[in-house]
Backbone:
């Protein structure tokens, strides 16, 4: 995404959010697919790999992942709203933040639950 | 980003939003009683619905990710349009293959 030249740093970072978080999500997906692919060797192989999810570092990585997902949805929805909806910019940022906040809350429930 | 890539990126985003939210909701549900291999596979094995759902999800991710990566490579690393398209296309294709393999792994009995 090539952001329009803006004078406020916050808006510059808002414009860079979808790309940065999207790249990080794309780098994570091979690991996600690898874990699920273990099921090809049977339930026990998948269960063995899933036992890693009890490790605190993996838990932390899951929390980061949920955060990135929320950030990406926030940035993406904001861009879509800016382009497609006849709202005021502040309203669009607020609406996207509300949805991203809900996703973040749900995600943290998953990780801590 | 060309006009077609721009439109495809928005279109794939609109497809991905509901799929991603359903995936997150399902994950929340699955984690509720503890995530186990038996629980995941009991839902996915032989399920045409989840097979189609996740295949569509992966294809949309592959398309969305390829266009996004191509844009980053062009604008941040200043790669030529051809080189960025080639690198992003290969990455996206590998991602789709790995994703569909994972779907097959949890789907096939």
Residues:
């Amino acid at each position: 995404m090539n952001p329009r030249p803006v004078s406020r740093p916050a808006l510059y970072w808002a414009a860079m959010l979808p790309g940065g978080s999207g790249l990080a999500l794309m780098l994570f997906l091979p690991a996600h697919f690898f874990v699920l692919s273990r099921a090809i060797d049977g339930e026990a192989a998948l269960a063995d790999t899933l036992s890693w999810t009890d490790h605190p570092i993996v838990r932390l990585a899951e929390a980061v992942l949920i955060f990135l997902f929320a950030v990406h949805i926030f940035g993406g929805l904001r861009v879509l709203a800016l382009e497609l909806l006849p709202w005021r910019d502040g309203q669009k940022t607020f609406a996207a933040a509300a949805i991203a906040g809900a996703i973040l809350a749900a995600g943290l429930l998953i990780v801590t639950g | 980003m060309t006009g077609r890539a721009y439109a495809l990126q928005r279109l794939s985003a609109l497809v991905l939003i509901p799929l991603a939210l359903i995936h997150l909701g399902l994950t929340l549900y699955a984690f509720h009683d503890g995530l186990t291999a038996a629980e995941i596979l009991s839902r996915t094995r032989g399920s045409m619905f989840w097979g189609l759902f996740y295949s569509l999800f992966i294809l949309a991710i592959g398309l969305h990710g390829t266009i996004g990566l191509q844009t980053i490579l062009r604008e941040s690393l200043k790669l030529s349009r051809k080189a960025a398209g080639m690198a992003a296309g290969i990455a996206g294709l590998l991602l789709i293959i790995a994703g569909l393999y994972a779907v097959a792994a949890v789907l096939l009995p």
